[in-house]
Amino acid sequence: MQNQNLSNLNFRALVILGVISFALYLAAERGLLGLALSSDRSYISYIIVSVYVIASLHWLWVAHILSRERGQFALLERIVQSADADFDNLSEGAIGKLVQNCKEQAPGGDTGILVSAFGDELSNRHALGHFISDALLKLGLLGTIVGFILMLLPIGELKGFEASGMQQLLSQMSGGMGVALYTTLAGLVTSTLLKFQYHVLDASVADLVTRVSVTADLHLTKDAS
Q: What are phi and psi of 90, to 5 degrees?
C-alpha cells in the first residue's frame, strides 16, 4: 500500500485537471466564460487563459516526471529491504543519480548534502510554474489598469451633458469597467488554480525528500561502505 501511494501522482494530477476542466465546461455552458472573454476589449483575458492552459500542460508533464521519481524510490525501498541490494535498476532520474553518488562517497559519509541537492533538483522544476502563477496575477492587474483607462477616456472627450451623449458615455464606461473586472477575475482565478496545482507537487516533493533522507541515512551509507 505504501508503494502504491507513492506512485499515484499521475492519477491525482489527472483528477485535478479533470475537475478544473469540468468547472470550465460548466462556466462555458452557462455562458459565463464567453461573456468574460467577449467583454474584454483588451484581449488580456485571452492571453491569461492561453498562458494558463500552457502552464497546466507543463504542470502535467512535471507531475509525470515526479511520479516516475516516486516510482523509482518505491523500487529503491524494495531493493534495500531485500537480501541482495542490487541498485543497477536505479539508473534513471534524480533517484538513480543520488544512489550512484551515495555509493561513490567515502564509507560512513554524510548523505545530507546529497539529499539536499536531490531536493533542490526536484524543486527547481517547479520554479517556472510559480513564476507563471505570479505573472498571471500581474496580467490580471494590468487588465485592471487598462480597464480603468478605457473607462476614463470617454470623460475627457465629453463636450456636453446631452442625454444621448451621457448614454453613450455610460456605455463606454461600462465597457472599460468590464475589462477591468473580467481581467482581474481571470488573473485571480488562474493564478490561484496554478498555485494550488504546484502546491500539490511541492508537497509531493517534500514528502519524497523526507523519505529519501531516512532511507539514505539507514541504508545507502551502509551499502556504500
A: -100, 60
CA–CA dist 36, 13 (Å, integer):
27
Residues with Cβ within 8 Å of residue 69, at least 6 apart in sequence: 93, 94, 95, 122, 208
Classify each residue of 157-180 as buried b or exposed e, where b means 16 or more C-beta atoms within 10 Å of its C-beta. eeeeeeeeeeeeeeebbebbebbb
What are 144's three cell numbers? 485592471
Percent of the chain predicted with pLDDT > 90: 27
65-87 in b/e form (b: 16+ CB < 10 A) is: ebbbbbbbbbbbbebbeeeeeeb
Burial environment of residue 15 by CB neighbours within 10 A (0 to 12, 13 to 18, 19 or more): exposed
Q: What is this structure's pTM?
A: 0.80
**182 in Cβ contact with 36 (< 8 Å):** yes
- Contact criterion met (CB below 8 Å) for 99 and 73: no
Distances (CA, A) of 189 to 4, 124, 128, 186, 203: 32, 24, 18, 5, 21
* End-to-end CA gap in the chain: 31
Q: How far is CA 172 from CA 5, 48, 166, 180, 181, in A?
A: 55, 23, 10, 13, 14
Position 224 scores a pLDDT of: 43
